[in-house]
Design a protein that fits this description.
alpha/beta; TIM Barrel; 2 domains; 7-stranded parallel sheet; 4-stranded mixed sheet
Length: 378
């Protein structure tokens, strides 16, 4: 009998959770990692030799829109996330209390990608044409609490988006208050999309967030950005000291090189890097994804090893999944991503079309639960 079903030997393996960055091997049996280190001996049914690129734990996207139908933002997670190195992703509010069972059946149970949900405070999630809170009647505190109690394994927390797009004419303070009420009664965090509008200050919003809550879209350059007059504002540093998390949430409109540059230069890195990948990214060239979003921060000066941590170990820990994924420790699921460095990739650009020089880490191989599900020329 072979020691491993799959043995991966690589010139570079990076596991931030294990503080390993160098030559290494990973032994896989069925769906689990059973051996990891600089030297792993034994026979295998299949051996994969990686002489270029880097082997990482499967990427974890803290904010995306995996959904099979019934979400205006949804993308097929296996086609657009798993194929790009992301083995675990969290949905930002694609489903609410009224359609969560369908979401669990079709997306969470119907995908090879591991999917968790930040449940929408709106009972229908993102299934309506307009903003999810445009009709205040869609705010469903009792239904949201009930859904969380019925589906504790699938729900990470509550998605609360107070943007003008999400709220329409609905009072954003009412939306945030409702989200915090659900969070307090269920002892779960919120994934917070802030009000990027002069009618609400960033300070007033951050003051209401609690330790463990995560503010996404942290590097936008719209009103109420984290940077003002060339400085990361005091209320942002204060929120971080209180334990509030800051997530990239790149998306279509929410990443600015200038905001990110100032923040990175002042040592304000995000707690997690996420793609906010959704339907408007489908067909774009170059393809949007978590690896490309991460590469933009590396180009700005975030150390590569730290960037790798922010797409593996850190989001796994914040999603309470670090005993399952996010590292290459024996006993964890055999989820791995191989990224290839492309020094002449298409230009890195932000939401405003501003370009920044630098190559790009690109997905080459994805292994999910011990199975090679996507492979390039390796």
């Amino acid at each position: 009998m072979k020691d491993y079903d799959l043995l991966i030997r690589a010139s570079r393996v990076c596991c931030p959770a294990s503080d390993h960055d160098g030559p290494g091997s990973v032994g896989i049996k069925e769906d689990r990692i059973v051996a990891f280190g600089s030297e792993v001996s034994g026979s295998a049914r299949r051996v994969l030799e990686i002489s270029e690129g880097v082997v990482l734990p499967g990427l974890v996207d803290f904010h995306a829109h995996p959904a099979h139908g019934d979400s205006k933002y949804g993308i097929d997670p296996d086609d657009y996330l798993l194929s790009r190195g992301v083995t675990t992703a969290m949905s930002q509010g694609d489903a609410g209390a009224a359609n969560i069972k369908d979401y669990i059946d079709k997306t969470i149970h119907g995908s090879d990608t591991r999917v968790v949900l930040a449940i929408n405070l709106s009972k229908s999630g993102e299934s309506m044409a307009g903003g999810c809170f445009s009709d205040p009647a869609d705010l469903d505190i009792a239904g949201c609490i009930g859904a969380i109690r019925d589906h504790p394994d699938e729900i990470w927390g509550i998605s609360v988006n107070t943007s003008t797009i999400a709220c329409g004419d609905t009072d954003p303070d009412t939306v945030l208050a409702a989200g915090l009420e659900v969070a307090e009664k269920t002892d779960l965090p919120i994934l917070f999309g802030s009000r990027r509008h002069p009618d609400r200050t960033l300070a007033s919003q951050l003051s209401k967030l609690r330790p463990g809550d995560a503010m996404t879209y942290c590097y936008h350059n719209m009103p109420q950005a984290i940077v003002k007059e060339g400085e990361v504002v005091d209320e942002v540093w204060g929120a971080r000291e209180r334990g509030v998390l800051f997530d990239l949430g790149h998306g279509i409109a929410s990443f600015s090189f200038e905001t990110a540059r100032v923040a990175v230069e002042q040592g304000f890195f995000p707690d997690t890097i996420s793609s906010d990948q959704y339907v408007r990214h489908v067909g774009l060239e170059p393809p949007h994804g978590l690896a490309r979003s991460m590469s933009k921060l590396v180009a700005l000066g975030i150390p590569e090893s730290r960037a790798f941590e922010l797409v593996t170990a850190a989001p796994a820990r914040h999603l309470r999944l670090n005993k399952e994924v996010g590292a290459l420790r024996p006993g964890l699921y055999a989820d791995l991503a191989v990224l290839s460095w492309n020094p002449s990739s298409a230009p890195l650009s932000d939401a405003q079309g501003v370009e920044h020089p630098g190559g790009c880490w690109e997905p080459a191989i994805t292994i999910k639960s011990g199975q090679i599900v996507s492979q390039g020329d390796f």
